[in-house]
From TrEMBL:
CDD domains: DHQS. Its cofactor is Zn(2+); NAD(+); Co(2+). This is 3-dehydroquinate synthase. It comes from Flavobacterium arcticum. It comes from the Bacteria. Residues 176-319 form the 3-dehydroquinate synthase C-terminal domain. SUPFAM superfamilies: Dehydroquinate synthase-like. The gene is aroB. Keywords: Cobalt, Lyase, Metal-binding, NAD, Nucleotide-binding, Zinc. Its EC number is 4.2.3.4. One of its GO terms (cellular component) is cytoplasm. Pfam families: DHQ_synthase (PF01761), DHQS_C (PF24621). Catalyzes the conversion of 3-deoxy-D-arabino-heptulosonate 7-phosphate (DAHP) to dehydroquinate (DHQ). Residues 62-174 form the 3-dehydroquinate synthase N-terminal domain. One of its GO terms (molecular function) is 3-dehydroquinate synthase activity.
Length: 355
Protein backbone atom coordinates (compact mmCIF):
# COMPACT_ATOMS: atom_id res chain seq x y z
CA UNK A 1 0.00 0.00 0.00
CA UNK A 2 1.17 3.50 -0.82
CA UNK A 3 2.26 5.59 2.20
CA UNK A 4 0.18 8.52 3.46
CA UNK A 5 1.89 11.88 3.97
CA UNK A 6 0.89 13.45 7.28
CA UNK A 7 2.01 16.73 8.85
CA UNK A 8 5.77 16.34 9.22
CA UNK A 9 5.79 12.54 9.09
CA UNK A 10 4.69 9.65 6.89
CA UNK A 11 2.41 6.68 7.60
CA UNK A 12 3.83 3.45 6.13
CA UNK A 13 2.05 0.11 5.75
CA UNK A 14 2.94 -3.56 6.21
CA UNK A 15 6.34 -4.54 4.71
CA UNK A 16 7.30 -0.92 4.09
CA UNK A 17 7.30 -0.41 7.85
CA UNK A 18 10.33 -2.63 8.34
CA UNK A 19 12.17 -1.16 5.36
CA UNK A 20 11.80 2.26 6.97
CA UNK A 21 13.09 0.96 10.32
CA UNK A 22 16.10 -0.71 8.67
CA UNK A 23 17.02 2.51 6.88
CA UNK A 24 16.39 4.91 9.76
CA UNK A 25 17.13 3.19 13.08
CA UNK A 26 20.93 3.00 13.05
CA UNK A 27 23.64 3.50 15.71
CA UNK A 28 24.79 6.75 14.10
CA UNK A 29 21.23 8.10 14.44
CA UNK A 30 20.08 6.79 17.83
CA UNK A 31 21.96 5.87 21.01
CA UNK A 32 19.37 3.41 22.35
CA UNK A 33 15.97 2.07 21.33
CA UNK A 34 13.26 1.79 23.99
CA UNK A 35 10.22 -0.31 23.03
CA UNK A 36 7.18 0.47 25.19
CA UNK A 37 4.64 -2.37 25.35
CA UNK A 38 1.95 -3.54 27.73
CA UNK A 39 1.81 -7.11 28.99
CA UNK A 40 -0.57 -8.11 26.18
CA UNK A 41 1.53 -6.75 23.32
CA UNK A 42 4.67 -8.06 25.02
CA UNK A 43 3.22 -11.56 24.66
CA UNK A 44 1.44 -11.38 21.32
CA UNK A 45 3.11 -8.62 19.26
CA UNK A 46 6.66 -8.03 20.50
CA UNK A 47 8.00 -11.41 19.24
CA UNK A 48 6.53 -10.72 15.78
CA UNK A 49 8.04 -7.24 15.77
CA UNK A 50 11.52 -8.33 16.88
CA UNK A 51 11.58 -10.98 14.13
CA UNK A 52 11.19 -8.19 11.56
CA UNK A 53 13.41 -5.56 13.19
CA UNK A 54 16.97 -5.35 11.87
CA UNK A 55 19.13 -2.87 13.79
CA UNK A 56 22.42 -2.67 15.65
CA UNK A 57 21.02 -0.12 18.10
CA UNK A 58 20.85 -1.39 21.70
CA UNK A 59 17.25 -2.37 22.55
CA UNK A 60 15.49 -2.03 25.91
CA UNK A 61 11.89 -3.13 26.51
CA UNK A 62 9.66 -1.25 28.96
CA UNK A 63 6.50 -3.17 29.88
CA UNK A 64 3.35 -1.52 31.27
CA UNK A 65 0.24 -2.92 32.91
CA UNK A 66 -2.57 -2.99 30.30
CA UNK A 67 -5.82 -1.07 30.25
CA UNK A 68 -7.20 2.47 30.37
CA UNK A 69 -7.03 2.40 34.17
CA UNK A 70 -3.21 2.56 33.91
CA UNK A 71 -3.14 5.49 31.46
CA UNK A 72 -2.22 8.03 34.10
CA UNK A 73 0.58 10.28 35.30
CA UNK A 74 1.78 7.68 37.85
CA UNK A 75 2.58 5.29 35.01
CA UNK A 76 4.40 8.12 33.19
CA UNK A 77 6.52 8.78 36.27
CA UNK A 78 7.49 5.11 36.41
CA UNK A 79 8.49 5.17 32.73
CA UNK A 80 10.44 8.43 33.11
CA UNK A 81 12.36 6.88 36.04
CA UNK A 82 13.04 3.76 33.99
CA UNK A 83 14.33 5.81 31.05
CA UNK A 84 16.63 7.71 33.39
CA UNK A 85 17.90 4.48 35.01
CA UNK A 86 18.55 2.98 31.56
CA UNK A 87 20.54 6.13 30.66
CA UNK A 88 18.29 7.35 27.88
CA UNK A 89 19.75 10.55 26.42
CA UNK A 90 18.49 13.10 23.88
CA UNK A 91 19.35 10.66 21.09
CA UNK A 92 17.21 7.90 22.53
CA UNK A 93 14.28 6.64 20.46
CA UNK A 94 10.99 5.34 21.82
CA UNK A 95 8.85 2.90 19.83
CA UNK A 96 5.28 2.61 21.12
CA UNK A 97 4.17 -0.91 20.20
CA UNK A 98 0.59 -1.29 21.32
CA UNK A 99 -2.95 0.01 21.34
CA UNK A 100 -4.25 3.48 22.09
CA UNK A 101 -3.17 3.48 25.73
CA UNK A 102 0.44 2.69 24.77
CA UNK A 103 0.59 5.20 21.89
CA UNK A 104 -1.11 7.99 23.87
CA UNK A 105 0.99 7.49 26.99
CA UNK A 106 4.22 6.60 25.20
CA UNK A 107 3.97 9.63 22.95
CA UNK A 108 3.41 11.88 25.98
CA UNK A 109 6.37 10.33 27.83
CA UNK A 110 8.66 10.80 24.82
CA UNK A 111 7.51 14.36 24.16
CA UNK A 112 8.26 15.45 27.72
CA UNK A 113 11.36 13.39 28.64
CA UNK A 114 14.44 15.65 28.36
CA UNK A 115 12.05 18.17 26.74
CA UNK A 116 11.32 15.77 23.92
CA UNK A 117 12.93 12.78 22.22
CA UNK A 118 11.89 11.04 18.99
CA UNK A 119 9.14 8.43 19.07
CA UNK A 120 7.50 6.09 16.59
CA UNK A 121 4.00 4.70 16.86
CA UNK A 122 3.42 1.12 15.79
CA UNK A 123 -0.27 0.56 16.55
CA UNK A 124 -1.29 -3.04 17.19
CA UNK A 125 -5.03 -2.57 17.75
CA UNK A 126 -7.55 -1.53 15.12
CA UNK A 127 -8.53 1.45 17.27
CA UNK A 128 -4.95 2.69 17.46
CA UNK A 129 -4.38 2.15 13.72
CA UNK A 130 -7.33 4.22 12.55
CA UNK A 131 -7.41 6.77 15.35
CA UNK A 132 -5.08 6.99 18.35
CA UNK A 133 -1.69 6.58 16.65
CA UNK A 134 -2.33 9.14 13.88
CA UNK A 135 -2.73 12.88 14.36
CA UNK A 136 -0.20 13.71 17.06
CA UNK A 137 -2.46 13.63 20.13
CA UNK A 138 -0.72 12.32 23.23
CA UNK A 139 -1.81 12.31 26.84
CA UNK A 140 -3.13 10.60 29.93
CA UNK A 141 -6.26 10.53 32.07
CA UNK A 142 -6.94 12.10 35.47
CA UNK A 143 -8.80 9.41 37.37
CA UNK A 144 -11.74 8.42 35.18
CA UNK A 145 -11.59 11.67 33.19
CA UNK A 146 -10.12 10.87 29.78
CA UNK A 147 -7.19 12.65 28.15
CA UNK A 148 -7.18 15.64 30.50
CA UNK A 149 -3.38 16.09 30.40
CA UNK A 150 -1.41 15.92 27.18
CA UNK A 151 -0.12 17.74 24.16
CA UNK A 152 -0.10 17.52 20.38
CA UNK A 153 3.28 16.16 19.36
CA UNK A 154 3.94 14.38 16.08
CA UNK A 155 5.81 11.08 15.92
CA UNK A 156 8.83 10.50 13.71
CA UNK A 157 6.66 8.12 11.73
CA UNK A 158 3.64 5.83 12.13
CA UNK A 159 4.05 2.23 10.99
CA UNK A 160 0.83 0.30 10.38
CA UNK A 161 1.23 -3.46 9.99
CA UNK A 162 -2.23 -5.01 9.83
CA UNK A 163 -0.71 -8.42 10.65
CA UNK A 164 -1.08 -7.44 14.31
CA UNK A 165 -4.87 -7.42 13.94
CA UNK A 166 -4.66 -11.22 13.94
CA UNK A 167 -3.56 -11.08 17.60
CA UNK A 168 -6.72 -9.28 18.76
CA UNK A 169 -9.87 -10.70 20.37
CA UNK A 170 -13.10 -9.94 18.47
CA UNK A 171 -14.28 -7.34 20.99
CA UNK A 172 -11.13 -5.25 20.37
CA UNK A 173 -11.73 -5.40 16.61
CA UNK A 174 -15.31 -4.22 17.15
CA UNK A 175 -14.04 -1.40 19.35
CA UNK A 176 -11.79 -0.05 16.62
CA UNK A 177 -14.49 -0.58 14.00
CA UNK A 178 -16.59 2.11 15.72
CA UNK A 179 -14.03 4.77 14.78
CA UNK A 180 -14.10 3.60 11.16
CA UNK A 181 -17.88 3.91 11.11
CA UNK A 182 -17.50 7.40 12.62
CA UNK A 183 -15.18 8.50 9.81
CA UNK A 184 -17.86 7.58 7.28
CA UNK A 185 -20.60 9.36 9.23
CA UNK A 186 -18.75 12.65 9.57
CA UNK A 187 -17.14 12.97 6.14
CA UNK A 188 -17.78 10.26 3.56
CA UNK A 189 -21.14 8.57 2.93
CA UNK A 190 -19.60 6.25 0.37
CA UNK A 191 -17.03 5.09 2.90
CA UNK A 192 -19.81 4.54 5.46
CA UNK A 193 -21.53 2.20 3.00
CA UNK A 194 -18.22 0.41 2.36
CA UNK A 195 -17.55 -0.15 6.04
CA UNK A 196 -21.13 -1.19 6.82
CA UNK A 197 -20.81 -3.84 4.10
CA UNK A 198 -17.81 -5.46 5.84
CA UNK A 199 -19.29 -8.46 7.61
CA UNK A 200 -16.08 -10.34 8.40
CA UNK A 201 -13.90 -8.03 10.46
CA UNK A 202 -10.71 -9.98 9.65
CA UNK A 203 -10.28 -9.96 5.89
CA UNK A 204 -8.75 -8.10 2.97
CA UNK A 205 -11.68 -5.66 2.89
CA UNK A 206 -10.73 -4.52 6.38
CA UNK A 207 -7.11 -4.04 5.28
CA UNK A 208 -8.07 -1.52 2.61
CA UNK A 209 -10.66 0.15 4.83
CA UNK A 210 -8.02 0.74 7.52
CA UNK A 211 -5.95 2.75 5.06
CA UNK A 212 -8.99 4.74 3.91
CA UNK A 213 -9.91 5.50 7.52
CA UNK A 214 -6.40 6.78 8.22
CA UNK A 215 -6.59 8.86 5.03
CA UNK A 216 -9.89 10.48 6.13
CA UNK A 217 -8.58 11.33 9.58
CA UNK A 218 -5.29 12.64 8.19
CA UNK A 219 -7.05 14.92 5.69
CA UNK A 220 -8.95 16.57 8.56
CA UNK A 221 -5.85 16.88 10.76
CA UNK A 222 -3.82 18.45 7.93
CA UNK A 223 -6.41 21.24 7.68
CA UNK A 224 -6.69 21.80 11.44
CA UNK A 225 -3.79 20.22 13.38
CA UNK A 226 -4.54 21.88 16.74
CA UNK A 227 -8.31 21.28 16.77
CA UNK A 228 -9.45 24.88 16.53
CA UNK A 229 -12.09 24.15 13.91
CA UNK A 230 -12.96 21.18 11.68
CA UNK A 231 -10.82 18.65 13.56
CA UNK A 232 -13.55 18.80 16.20
CA UNK A 233 -15.66 16.73 13.78
CA UNK A 234 -13.57 13.73 14.80
CA UNK A 235 -15.23 14.00 18.22
CA UNK A 236 -18.64 12.94 16.89
CA UNK A 237 -20.05 10.43 19.37
CA UNK A 238 -17.28 11.26 21.83
CA UNK A 239 -18.97 13.97 23.91
CA UNK A 240 -21.49 11.53 25.34
CA UNK A 241 -19.32 8.50 24.56
CA UNK A 242 -16.39 9.69 26.68
CA UNK A 243 -18.78 10.60 29.52
CA UNK A 244 -20.29 7.10 29.34
CA UNK A 245 -16.86 5.48 29.21
CA UNK A 246 -15.64 7.49 32.21
CA UNK A 247 -18.81 6.86 34.22
CA UNK A 248 -18.61 3.10 33.66
CA UNK A 249 -14.90 3.11 34.54
CA UNK A 250 -15.60 4.94 37.81
CA UNK A 251 -18.60 2.86 38.97
CA UNK A 252 -17.99 -0.72 40.04
CA UNK A 253 -21.62 -1.72 39.42
CA UNK A 254 -21.28 -0.91 35.70
CA UNK A 255 -19.44 -3.05 33.18
CA UNK A 256 -16.25 -1.33 32.00
CA UNK A 257 -16.70 -0.49 28.33
CA UNK A 258 -14.06 -0.52 25.64
CA UNK A 259 -13.59 2.88 23.99
CA UNK A 260 -15.37 1.92 20.78
CA UNK A 261 -18.29 0.37 22.68
CA UNK A 262 -18.88 3.65 24.50
CA UNK A 263 -18.40 5.72 21.34
CA UNK A 264 -20.96 3.57 19.49
CA UNK A 265 -23.54 4.46 22.14
CA UNK A 266 -22.49 8.10 21.90
CA UNK A 267 -22.96 8.05 18.12
CA UNK A 268 -26.50 6.65 18.45
CA UNK A 269 -27.40 9.28 21.05
CA UNK A 270 -25.86 12.15 19.10
CA UNK A 271 -27.49 10.95 15.88
CA UNK A 272 -30.87 11.02 17.64
CA UNK A 273 -30.15 14.54 18.87
CA UNK A 274 -29.22 15.52 15.30
CA UNK A 275 -32.58 14.23 14.11
CA UNK A 276 -34.51 16.00 16.86
CA UNK A 277 -32.71 19.25 15.99
CA UNK A 278 -34.14 18.96 12.46
CA UNK A 279 -30.79 18.20 10.83
CA UNK A 280 -30.54 14.44 10.23
CA UNK A 281 -33.47 12.69 8.52
CA UNK A 282 -35.41 10.06 10.45
CA UNK A 283 -34.58 7.50 7.75
CA UNK A 284 -30.83 8.08 8.12
CA UNK A 285 -31.08 8.05 11.92
CA UNK A 286 -32.88 4.72 11.89
CA UNK A 287 -30.25 3.34 9.50
CA UNK A 288 -27.39 4.46 11.77
CA UNK A 289 -29.08 3.07 14.87
CA UNK A 290 -29.82 -0.28 13.19
CA UNK A 291 -26.18 -0.69 12.11
CA UNK A 292 -24.72 0.20 15.50
CA UNK A 293 -27.21 -1.79 17.58
CA UNK A 294 -26.48 -4.74 15.30
CA UNK A 295 -22.76 -4.63 16.12
CA UNK A 296 -22.61 -3.36 19.72
CA UNK A 297 -24.48 -4.88 22.64
CA UNK A 298 -27.01 -2.55 24.23
CA UNK A 299 -26.09 -1.24 27.70
CA UNK A 300 -28.81 -0.48 30.26
CA UNK A 301 -28.62 2.91 32.00
CA UNK A 302 -30.80 3.81 34.99
CA UNK A 303 -32.02 7.39 35.62
CA UNK A 304 -29.25 7.64 38.25
CA UNK A 305 -26.66 6.52 35.68
CA UNK A 306 -27.85 9.12 33.18
CA UNK A 307 -27.57 11.90 35.76
CA UNK A 308 -24.04 10.73 36.58
CA UNK A 309 -23.12 10.73 32.89
CA UNK A 310 -24.50 14.26 32.46
CA UNK A 311 -22.26 15.47 35.31
CA UNK A 312 -19.26 14.01 33.46
CA UNK A 313 -19.97 16.20 30.42
CA UNK A 314 -18.53 19.30 32.07
CA UNK A 315 -15.05 17.79 31.69
CA UNK A 316 -15.27 17.37 27.89
CA UNK A 317 -12.25 19.00 26.22
CA UNK A 318 -14.36 20.77 23.56
CA UNK A 319 -16.17 22.85 26.18
CA UNK A 320 -15.73 26.62 25.94
CA UNK A 321 -16.79 29.21 28.54
CA UNK A 322 -18.72 26.54 30.42
CA UNK A 323 -20.77 25.52 27.37
CA UNK A 324 -20.83 21.87 26.31
CA UNK A 325 -20.08 21.67 22.58
CA UNK A 326 -21.53 18.81 20.49
CA UNK A 327 -20.72 17.54 17.02
CA UNK A 328 -23.95 16.71 15.16
CA UNK A 329 -24.84 15.21 11.78
CA UNK A 330 -26.59 17.03 8.94
CA UNK A 331 -26.63 13.77 6.99
CA UNK A 332 -24.54 10.61 6.70
CA UNK A 333 -21.20 11.99 5.51
CA UNK A 334 -21.66 15.54 6.81
CA UNK A 335 -21.11 16.87 10.35
CA UNK A 336 -21.26 20.28 12.03
CA UNK A 337 -19.43 21.45 15.16
CA UNK A 338 -20.04 23.66 18.22
CA UNK A 339 -23.70 22.86 18.86
CA UNK A 340 -25.22 23.42 22.31
CA UNK A 341 -27.76 20.84 23.49
CA UNK A 342 -30.26 20.87 26.37
CA UNK A 343 -30.21 18.19 29.06
CA UNK A 344 -33.85 17.41 28.23
CA UNK A 345 -32.85 16.45 24.69
CA UNK A 346 -30.07 14.21 26.03
CA UNK A 347 -32.58 12.48 28.31
CA UNK A 348 -34.85 11.90 25.32
CA UNK A 349 -31.91 10.44 23.39
CA UNK A 350 -31.23 7.94 26.20
CA UNK A 351 -34.94 7.06 26.32
CA UNK A 352 -34.95 6.32 22.59
CA UNK A 353 -31.71 4.28 22.87
CA UNK A 354 -33.09 2.19 25.74
CA UNK A 355 -36.37 1.55 23.88
Amino acid sequence: MEPIQASGYTVYFNNDCYVWLYENVKPEMYSKLFIIVDSNTATHCLPLFLQQLETDVVIEVIELEPGEINKNIDTCIQVWHTLAELECDRKGLIINLGGGVVTDLGGFVASTFKRGIDFINIPTSLLAMVDAAVGGKTGVDIGALKNQVGLISNPKTVLVDTTYLGTLPSEEIRSGFAEMLKHGLILDAEYWNTVVAITNLINDDLDGAVKQSIYIKNEIVLKDPTEKNIRKKLNFGHTLGHAIESYCLENDDKKTLLHGEAIAIGMILESYISMEKGMLSETEYNSIKKVLIGIYEKVIFTPKDIEGILKMLIHDKKNEFGNIQFVLLESIGSAVINKNISNALIHNAFKDYLN
